[in-house]
Amino acid sequence: MNNIAGIVCYSALASSLLLTGCGGDDTNASTQLSEDVLAVVTALGLTGDPSTGVTTPSIDDPIAQLGMKLFFTKGLGGQQDSACVTCHHPNLGGGDDFSLPVGVDADIPDLLGPGRLHSVSGENFDGGPSVPRNSPTTFNVAFWDKTFFHDGRIESLDGNFGENGGGPSGIRTPDSALGVADPLAGSSLPAAQARFPVTSHEEMQSFETLVVGFDGTQMRNELVERFRGSGAEVIMLPTNDWLAEFQDGFESPAGTAVDLITYENIAFAIGEYERSQVFVDSPWRAFVQGDSSAISDSAKRGALTFFNSTTDGGANCASCHSGDFFTDESFHVIAMPQVGRGKGNGPDGNDDFGRFIETGVAADTYAFRTPGLTNVSATGPWSHAGAYHTLEGVIRHHLDPVTASANFDSSQLEPNVQASDTVELNLLSAAVLADNRAGGVIDTIENVVLTDDEVDDLVAFVLSLTDPCVEDRSCLSPWIPDASDGNPDGLRINGFDSGGDLL
């Protein structure tokens, strides 16, 4: 009996020691993996936090509160049926969760995201979405320093780190020539950007007779008169308490409508609201700042694949997705699938030549801005036209763009997205990529071979770049007005989804 008991005790002890040994090996391996990643992070000078060294407003600031009310009002829409938030709702990843947006002339103006449809009576109705490019997220826009929009048509002429486009040389916009500052652009890229959706027929201006033929300056002036309550030929607001809101926002209680309600001030306030959307508390940041358990070993392996060059066994992702914001803010041809109406390029007008539209440089044809990757899991679909609906799909495209473009599966798109010419258009962009490779164009993407496990690790890594707040409605609530916030014109979009639930 004693011998049996001794054997049992010995076996248990041996098993315990064996398990401890295995566990120790796993722990040592994980520790080494963490150290390897942190060594790369240190070498690249990363902090894990793109807000480091950047000054941003608080959502509680009066100017950001004014900007939020402007962002959510249909009063800035030409026919009062769309708003900034139509395509950029905080609870939809700062976008609209669509491949391509529907701006004006929607069946149900306050229905946002999947299920929003272009009305059959809308201008140029073809059954699909009316805006030709994917809605970029408003999250963390305070960290862009060089360019805005997929084609960079808003561009800082300085591009200094931490200035968000501000700087002595100014900002170029579509209202000025390439390389020339727009004197009305404002003090940041988001403020400059806020000048243009109201001038887009598809996004906010509308096609109605009232506003057709207006240039951007005329349209903005008409909106200013509307908000001042002094316009004679515009659609007026059903109620108008905007002067009090501008007095609060600009902390000028005695300010007049003429002094305070200008389009420059409207754009500035909207820009400050957008700049307050800072969401950087990601597992990746926690890891870089010392919590080795914040991300999985798979994510750590993915980080090494992401940051290392191909000669070091990586995928060289960081050559374009660089820095703590994971973008070089430059433009690259990677033959992303072309879907949707297009930007009027090509023989049939259904193509989108990207950066070429701005520069006229042949190598820029089909080049689009490198997106940042913070909160990327919440900001799909991905690409300039929202072609990919999974992060794995986007990653695999980068490994062999020409093959991926040729084999693009359009069934992942929403059923009404225009894709009948996608195969033909994809061949054109792939040909430009091939020409750029053959011509030695700098920073042209090259093919990379990865195993399925390595792709899975990359997905795990990019998932670690998301701040949980952006997927939590209660955490996002400060950026979404409710009944306690003023509704100065009665035209606030109280967005709801296709199931009727408030966003």
Describe this structure in words.
The protein has 16 helices and five strands. It has helices spanning 2-44, 62-72, 189-193, 201-205, 216-228, 242-249, 257-260, 263-275, 283-288, 297-307, 356-359, 391-399, 401-406, 422-438, 452-463, 473-476, and strands at 147-148, 154-156, 171-172, 331-333, 367-369. The strands form two sheets. It has a three-stranded antiparallel sheet with strand order 1-2-3. Strands 4-5 form a two-stranded antiparallel ribbon. β1 (147-148) and β2 (154-156) form a beta hairpin. α2 crosses α8 and α10 packs across α15. The N and C termini lie far apart (70 Å). Residues 1-22 have low confidence and may be disordered.
- Strands ordered across the widest β-sheet: 1-2-3
Tally of separate domains: 2
User: What distance separates the N and C termini?
Assistant: 70 Å
From the alpha-carbon coordinates, what is the Rg to the nearest angstrom?
25 Å
CATH level 4 superfamily of the largest domain: Cytochrome c-like domain
Overall mean pLDDT score? 93
CATH top level of the largest domain is: Mainly Alpha
Oligomeric form of this entry?
single chain
Shape: globular
CATH fold-level assignment of the largest domain: Cytochrome Bc1 Complex, Chain D, domain 2
Which parts are unreliable, with pLDDT below 50 for 5 consecutive residues or more?
A: 1-22
Q: Helices and strands, in N-to-C order?
A: HHEEEHHHHHHHHEHEHHHHH
Task: Give a brief description.
With 503 residues, the chain is mainly α. It has helices spanning 2-44, 62-72, 189-193, 201-205, 216-228, 242-249, 257-260, 263-275, 283-288, 297-307, 356-359, 391-399, 401-406, 422-438, 452-463, 473-476; strands at residues 147-148, 154-156, 171-172, 331-333, 367-369.
